[in-house]
Amino acid sequence: MKRKISNQGFTLTELLVAMIISGVVATGIYSTFYSQQKSYLAQEQIAAMQQNLRGAMHLLGRDIRMAGYDPTGWATTGIQTAQANSIRFTMDITDDAGTGTPDGDTGDPNEDITYALVDLDGDGDTDLGRNDANGGGNHQIAENIDALNFVYLDKNGNPTATLSDIRAVQASVLARTDRRDQGYQNTQVYANQLGTSIFTPPAGDGFRRRLLTEEFKCRNLGID
Predict the structure, then answer these.
(1) Which residues of 186-200 are buried (b: 16+ CB within 10 A; e: fewer)?
(2) How many angstroms from the chain centroid is the CA of residue 196?
(3) Mean pLDDT calculated for residue range 27-36
(4) Are 148 and 173 in contact (CB under 8 A)?
(5) Domain limits at 153?
(6) Which of 99, 54, 104, 64 is nearest to 211 (CA)?
(7) Maximum Cα–Cα distance for the chain, whole Å?
(8) What does pTM read for this prediction?
């Protein structure tokens, strides 16, 4: 038996068809990978933002609940400044030695606290700052915070501007992701619990945001 060997290769048409099929398959694979990568990065950004926001609200609520703490009755503690975008309050929780024993004044660390939006890292984005008047000044609590809003309530749950009548504080904190999400447009208007607008994204904004609002009872205020 004789073996026949063919020297005939692929035709140009066959090569073109193979190249086209390979290109279509490669494009599909790349599109799937790109879509999954984009979704992963977006979810990673959102998770970091939400964790940042929850941590900030936890610390904010812990401090506000202690506003007015004055077991000796000599420190004259309470909410000192009640503005829509900042709050300052005092408490007597320790002494000069830091033993945790109230000493009748508010001149020790963590006894005169102000929360407000600041830009401590100088990147042009506002962050949530905690200013300890007796303990080193401003400290960044959470970064990339677009809005901070406070509503002050009296014992009946009605908004009040009278410091001595405040019994609860509604705090709203709006955080955003560190990077823009390509192709995403944020057109939502954010409001506090009373329905008052506290932030409107600029045109063409591509940041994802989360708003967290909580009401904190000031358990040390109004105690006779």
Answers:
(1) beeebbbeeeeebbe
(2) 19
(3) 72
(4) yes
(5) 36-217
(6) 54
(7) 116
(8) 0.82
In this structure, is the dihedral angle defined by the CA atoms of residues 18, 21, 25 and 27, taken in order, positive or negative?
positive
**Number of domains making up the chain:** 1
Write out pLDDT tens, residues 92-141: 998 877 788 899 999 999 999 999 999 988 888 999 999 999 988 899 99
Q: Specify the residue for token string 């830091």.
A: 98
Identify whether 72 is part of a domain. yes
In a domain, 120, yes or no: yes
Q: Quick check: 67 and 77 in contact, CB under 8 A?
A: yes
Rounded CA separation 120/129 (Å) = 8
What does the pLDDT look like over 151-192, one tens digit per residue? 999 999 999 999 999 999 999 999 999 888 888 889 999 999
Report the side by side order of strands in the sheet with 78-82.
78-82, 86-90, 112-118, 127-132, 137-142
Amino acid present at 143: E
31 in a structural domain:
no
Give the long-range contacts of residues 38-41, CB within 8 A, separation 24 or more.
Answer: 38/182
Residue 182 within a domain: yes
